[in-house]
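G., the chain you wanted modeled:
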Amino acid sequence: MLAKLTRELPRADDMFYEPKWDGFRCIVFRDGDEVELGSRNEKPLTRYFPELIGPLKRDLPDRCVLDGEIVIAGPHGLDFDALSQRIHPAESRITLLASTTPASFVAFDILAVGDRDLCDAPYAERRKLLEKTLKSSTAPVHVTPATKDPDVASDWFSRFEGAGLDGVVAKPGDLRYLQDKRAMLKVKHERTADCVVGGFRWHKEGGVVGSLLLGLYDHNEVLHHVGVASGFTAVRRRELVGELEPLRSGAADNHPWLQSATESGRLPGGTSRWSAGKDMSWEPLRPELVCEVAYDHLQEERFRHGTSFRRWRPDRQPASCTYAQLEAPVPMELSLVFDALS
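Predicted structure as tokens:
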């Protein structure tokens, strides 16, 4: 079951609120000694998190299906970069990381127990059963906190972003588990930033712009690639071709992202386990254009997700687009979050 985005915390009778965890969505299947972890799109995750199998066998009923999130808690909260590194082809690497950066499983729904399919049961009943089923669980197996008080949920939303919580999820108490349906609501943080447009990528259909490559200057006046703006309509993609064309002439001359990484910091175009097989080539632009984008999360000096283009900013100078404009949440240890939410 999925969630659709809303910018206002919904307030209604019989609404449940939970923290939104920033990790890998995971369905856990247990049948006796067999435990399988699967992603939202049904890709297997079991081999990547061997340290979770024993604790799940310890705390889960012999036959059940749970919905939840795999997360890694670092010294300053949830560490999505460490989590991403776990998707690795080498078993030796996975074994090492399972020891040095162990993962946790946070359960937020129960879909089956024994012979009973719970998908048609109301969420309020499923939540009560989830708490009963995992009442004796211990780390690294957790039950996500939940509240029916919107003021408490609003407080979570404001206070705990520094620990990596991605927002708040709201679920009506009578909600059935509707697979592949955006039946829940999620409230996420959103901020805006003015960024330099340092390049673009062609759309996979060809001939139109697919995404803008965004940059911010650090205190040493080095321009870092921090993310992309995408999601344009077909009409807007065609319009962008003409709007960007004047900035393509001479763009490769002394472009900061065409130098070595040691000279110019974070660069676009690199491949990862997530971009394998994708065309990551890009076209440089003279870094003279500024746009305003909306973003929800900054992690390791880059935008955690893709941004949304808001408008051009002809009134802004590229040199003014620095990290200093960004509001960064105060880091918080995840243990403090669990204590405060309990």
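The chain has eight helices and 19 strands.

Shout if anything looks off.
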